[in-house]
Amino acid sequence: MRGLPALLPVLSLALAQTVIPFWHTAGPPGDRVLEEAIRSFNAGQNAYRLEARYVGDYREAGVKLLAALRSGRPPALFHAELSFLPRLAKEGLALPLDAYLQDLPQDLYPAPLKAGQVGGRTYGLPLGVSVPALYYNKDAFRAKGLKPPMTWAEVERAAEALTSRTAKGMVIATDVWSFNAIVMSLGGSLVKDGLPAFTSKEAVEALEMLYRMVQKGHAQARNLAEAQFAVADFLRTKAFMGIGPTTALPVVLAQTALPFQVGYAPLPRVPGGAVPLSGAVLVVLKGAGPEEARGAVAFWRHFLEPKRQADWVRTTWYLPLRRAAEAELKDFLQEPERRAVFAQVEAARPWSQDPELVVWYGYLEEALEKSLKQGVKPRVALEEAQKKALAAER
User: Which family does it belong to (predicted)?
Assistant: First the structure.
């Protein structure tokens, strides 16, 4: 019994600590930075403890979360892809966090913060957000005397010039993110007034452009199930251009050495066009209490420390969330191509803040595949997707 008084403070501390189950989607190479942040957060204070679990990529994590919500055993904290956030908020599954966000650092960039808002309320804390890049094979461009395309017409011409008997000028992904990036760059949107806008002028124009390149033999279309082949097309010089987020290149470089120089350029954009801000946010889910919400915000603040932000940006090529991190990133951000691509944040907006899009995008991806892989005329394919989406809405 004499040892009991000495144990009481330890027991009291353990009972007072709030444990926060946290499901995340950060794979290599960014997992190292996130895991270090979790370890240092847990070791640096006694009020909260994050128990982290990797649950796959964005789509895999979404499926697992839906299963957990049905069983009544979701985590308190979830790393949600941006297009998933509006649905969680609309259905009351994500908790608003504004009450816990007083005295935020004044140097936070506004665009990433806006990405975590739905209907003017904050439901997500930005962890990693990115903009798109037009990736190209520098060696192939030099051999043909080509410059990085600045317009979509130049993309088409470059694809034609680069196409040979054994290679295509461009690889095209038929997923909703890639297509939406082009639609946004043309000044359009896939949703208007809460309804699908798959047959808008910009959407039709975007698909007609991709269709032309495929029909002429200047581009190869790949669906989501063939994503690894799309990457392989580029790596094996079977295609010389492709669209992807800034974060795509570090993932590839962490896995393989490239036999050529990779260039990256801003996405071509018309006046008034935008680029998609994509990525993921931390979401506190329904069922979590105030202390878990406070703990989630405390961890996010910890993650925002400038040196940690700089390490995160260098490792992942996500955009910096704070201006203070730029002092640690001067050489990284001074590289001309990278600076130009990262500067797109000035024209960036969240790629999806419409909760219905996660219900509709399957119809759109089906239409993209029918058009680009089966030869269905673009407008016909998009009209079919529009009808299916409207029927689902009713």
Answer: Belongs to the bacterial solute-binding protein 1 family.
In this structure, are 8 and 72 located in the same domain?
yes
Using an 8 Å Cβ cutoff, are 277 and 112 in contact? Answer: yes
CA distance to 40, 129, 260, 335, 344, per residue, from 332 (Å):
25, 17, 21, 6, 16
State the pLDDT at residue 5. 58
Please return the burial class of 387, using the count of CB atoms within 10 Å of its CB with bins 0-12, 13-18 and 19+: middle
Q: What is the pLDDT of residues 47-81, one digit of tens each?
A: 999 999 999 998 899 999 999 999 999 999 999 99
Q: Under 8 Å CB-to-CB from 110, ≥6 apart: which residues? A: none
Which residues, including other chains, have CB under 8 Å from residue 287's CB and lie 6 or more apart? 74, 76
Rounded CA-CA distance 238/230 in Å is: 9
Q: Which domain holds residue 245?
A: 132-276+354-393
**What is the per-residue pLDDT for 2?**
54
Q: Is the pLDDT of residue 4 over 70?
A: no
Listed in sequence order, the residues at least 6 apart from 164 whose beta carbon sits closer than 8 Å to its beta carbon are: none
Do 234 and 300 lie in one domain? The reply is: no
Number of domains comprising the chain: 2
Q: How far apart are CA 250 and CA 356, in angstroms?
A: 32
Give me the mean pLDDT over the 293-297 stretch.
Answer: 98
Residue 16 pLDDT grade (very low, low, confident, very high; cuts 50, 70, 90): confident
d(CA 229, CA 197): 30
Residue the block writes with tokens 């989406």: 389
Instruction: Say if pTM beats, i.e. exceeds, 0.70.
Output: yes
Do 56 and 101 lie in one domain? The reply is yes
On average, the pLDDT of the chain sits at 93
Structure tokens at 363: 């119809």
What CATH number corresponds to the domain at position 235? 3.40.190.10
Say if residue 200 is in the same domain as residue 334. Answer: no
